[in-house]
Design goal:
The complex is a heterodimer of chains A (about 425) and B (about 240). With about 425 residues, chain A is of the alpha+beta class. Helix content of chain A is about 50%, strand content about 15%. In chain A, the strands form 3 sheets. In chain A, strands 1, 3, 4, 7, 8, 9, 10, 11, 12, 14 and 15 form an 11-stranded mixed beta sheet that branches. A two-stranded antiparallel sheet of chain A has the order 2-13. The longest helix of chain A has about 40 residues. Chain B has about 240 residues and is of the alpha/beta class. Chain B has a domain of about 160 residues: Rossmann fold, CATH 3.40.50. In chain B, helix 3 crosses helix 5, helix 3 runs parallel beside helix 6 and helix 6 runs parallel beside helix 7. Chain B is globular. Classes of the chains: A alpha+beta (about 425), B alpha/beta (about 240). Chains A and B meet through helix 1, helix 11 and helix 12 of A and helix 1, helix 2 and helix 3 of B. The complex binds adenosine-5'-diphosphate and magnesium ion (MG).
């Protein structure tokens, strides 16, 4: 076929504008795919903030509220639940494991989560990623604290460091548990989830720092129980804030959820994290539409560049068209030639842009994960992405019809007249 | 469309390659630019058509090439009436049966000399079919040799002088042996010595393929080299 060859050589002849046009289409395609991949990545990261947990159980309140404090360590629990209720479910034969959480304290803006060793064993995020201690060991003694990766990094804390927790969760101004300092015994690996932004102590540790407190007020100076006198065995955990639960079989989760909601001991609420997470995501996902709209405009502006490049070239190409007509090319062939050129430009732009996205992704994935806590998997193009690319291809070809039509009209009007 | 002896176009002379009858042509609604009662050109003739600038030479060639469409009269080429053809059929006819040489700028700037020469055959299957399969490049090379441009085949056209470019145009016009060669003042950019040399080369090539040559110019200096000379003013009643 001679026409594709002509189109190719003609574009090659205008190398600079051709490269610019392809680049601008490639950038818009990369942006389109990038936004889509980021959107999916963000949604997936979000929905996979926690995994392998079938139910989250806390005091009765709103499901989103429970999700926020239990998974994102944000906001406040209205009520605690009794340790008794926790044990009731922990010992249920249908339950594989549970992870208790006791919240309420903080350290320099980071939340403190009191939990048990089950946390280090069973907590999972992003399908099958478990927690890994980058340094040290899990918190087991009363005044042990383990740091999330971001906490350690931002505060430049090391193993052995003394850490004083604050009462309450407001940043600064809170009362400090300076009488009972903790020691860093471990630092968790980066997870790119809210896990990174909290500190982890034992349930007993949480009880211990509040041991002398009377109805929400700290002990008077000099009346604190000395640290040496506090022994883990002597501490009795009375309350926790929430707990995560894994059943032995997923079907039981549904039954358990209903049972928890009607538990007679106290008003409880059970949520299925996947469901609650996607509900929450839907609430905040309107930003996606705005982002997508912007990328559509970027793609359009990429096309506009192509339109300008092809259209302005037509005038200087009139004698070329006259020669083509003289050797027997009809106006329709001229039209086809121009369509081929725009198709070639669009296709090259799409291929380059897609390549660019995967290149950036493979280079930037660890950086993005580290910087933004966003895990972007490198996966083949999804159905939606194929649709986007096809639409881009169709749009480019369609817009290419404008200069093609102009060339067609020129060819008819000029005939064999050579304009110089 | 290979040339066939015509029995279907009663009354016309099969020796005529061009037969114009009662042709009237105007651009849009204007007064006619051309009004030619009759013009016959025989096979193998080398015809010189002269007329001053603006007399309608290019218009006539445009009509003969089928780029301009006449509504009145008939233009029979090789027994086929262009006036009755669709635009598409005329394009195809031109590509397959004609070689067209412009005054200047005959070549596509982004193709090599060889690609410029073979373009006419690449675009027209029937024309390419006249060359044995796979021998397109060989034919192009041998024509280029005869025209003295063989050493430039792989060059880009900007490396050629105007005279060389015009010879490339001849090579393209002649490749695939079209029956009619149309030249629109192809020598006006050349000096006299080169004009004569150019014409002799053109004629040499056309004799081999027995092509008919229609050559227009406002400059009558070259007239003696042709078989026949027509004044456009005399045949044009417009
Ligand atoms: N595309 C066109 N539209 C309108 N008038 C034209 C066009 N081309 C040529 N003409 C007119 O037709 C006449 C003949 O032009 P042309 O055939 O180019 O003459 P020549 O080739 O002999 O110089 C001129 O008066 C010119 O102005
Ligand atoms: Mg002219």
């Amino acid at each position: 076929m001679i026409l594709p060859r002509l189109a190719y050589h003609s574009l090659k002849n205008r190398k600079f504008t051709t490269i610019l046009t392809i680049t601008s289409i490639a950038i818009s395609v990369a942006l389109l795919l990038g936004v889509e991949k980021t959107r999916l990545g963000a949604r997936d990261s979000f929905n996979n903030t926690i995994s392998q947990t079938d139910l989250i159980i806390g005091a009765r309140s709103g499901p989103i509220q429970l999700l926020l404090y239990a998974v994102f360590h944000m906001g406040d629990a209205t009520n605690n639940i009794s340790y008794q209720s926790y044990l009731h479910y922990k010992n249920d034969p249908r339950v594989e494991w549970t992870i208790p959480y006791s919240l309420g304290d903080s350290h320099r803006g980071f939340r403190v989560v009191a939990t048990s060793e089950e946390f280090y064993q069973h907590y999972h995020y992003r399908q099958d990623h478990g927690l890994v201690l980058a340094q040290g060991k899990a918190a087991s003694d009363v005044f042990d604290v383990v740091l999330g990766a971001d906490v350690a990094k931002q505060l430049h804390y090391q193993l052995g460091q003394e850490v004083v927790l604050s009462h309450g969760v407001s940043d600064g101004g809170g009362l400090e548990h300076s009488d009972k300092p903790f020691h860093v015994v471990g630092i968790l690996d980066k997870t790119a989830t809210p896990i990174d932004r909290s500190l982890y102590i034992t349930l007993e540790g949480m009880e211990a720092i509040h041991i002398d407190w009377q109805s929400g007020a700290p002990p008077l100076p000099g009346h604190e129980t000395p640290v040496e006198k506090i022994k883990k065995e002597n501490i009795k955990v009375e309350q926790i804030t929430a707990f995560l639960l894994r059943t032995k079989s997923r079907i039981q989760a549904i039954y358990l959820e209903r049972e928890v909601d009607t538990y007679e001991g106290e008003p409880l609420l059970a949520i299925i994290p996947g469901v609650a997470l996607s509900q929450l995501w839907q609430g905040i996902s309107y930003a996606e539409d705005g982002l997508r709209l912007i990328t559509v405009f970027v793609v359009l502006s990429g096309f506009l560049g192509m339109l300008i490049a092809l259209y302005t070239s037509l005038n200087e190409r009139r004698r070329e068209m006259a020669i083509l007509r003289a050797v027997g090319a009809g106006p329709r062939k001229i039209l086809f030639l121009l369509v081929l050129e725009s198709t070639f430009l669009t296709l090259s732009g799409i291929i380059t842009g897609t390549g660019l996205v995967y290149l950036l992704l493979s280079v930037g994935q660890p950086i993005i994960e580290r910087q933004f806590g966003l895990y972007l998997p490198i996966k083949p193009l999804s159905m939606t992405e194929w649709i986007y690319l096809s639409a881009t291809f169709g749009g480019g070809t369609l817009i290419g019809l404008v200069p093609a039509w102009k060339a067609f009209k020129n060819a008819l009007a000029d005939g064999l007249t050579i304009r110089v | 469309m290979p040339m066939k002896p015509s029995h279907s176009n009663g009354g016309t002379d099969p020796k005529n390659v061009v037969e114009i009858r009662d042709l009237v042509f105007r651009y849009g609604q204007d007064i006619p630019v051309l009004d030619i009662q009759s013009l016959d050109i025989k096979k193998g003739e080398k015809v010189f058509i002269y007329g001053p600038s603006g007399s309608g030479k290019t218009t006539l060639l445009g009509l003969l090439a089928g780029v301009l469409a006449a509504k009145e009269g008939s233009i029979r080429l090789l027994g086929k009436d262009l006036v009755k053809m669709t635009a598409h059929e005329r394009d195809e006819f031109r590509g397959n049966h004609m070689g067209y040489i412009f005054q200047m700028f005959n070549l596509i700037p982004y193709l090599s000399v060889l690609d410029n020469i073979t373009l006419s055959c690449e675009l027209n299957r029937t024309r390419k079919g006249r060359i044995p399969n796979g021998e397109l490049k060989k034919s192009a090379t041998s024509i280029a040799q005869e025209l003295g441009i063989a050493e430039y085949l792989d060059k880009t056209i900007t490396q050629l002088s105007v005279g060389q470019q015009q010879r490339v145009a001849v090579a393209r016009a002649i490749l695939g042996s079209p029956e009619i060669i149309i030249a629109d003042e192809p020598t006006s950019a050349l000096d006299y010595d080169h004009r004569e040399k150019f014409l002799k080369l053109l004629f040499l090539e056309c004799r081999k393929t027995q092509a008919t040559v229609l050559f227009v110019s406002h400059d009558r200096q070259l007239e003696p080299l042709f078989d026949r000379c027509i004044s456009l003013k005399e045949i044009n009643r417009a």
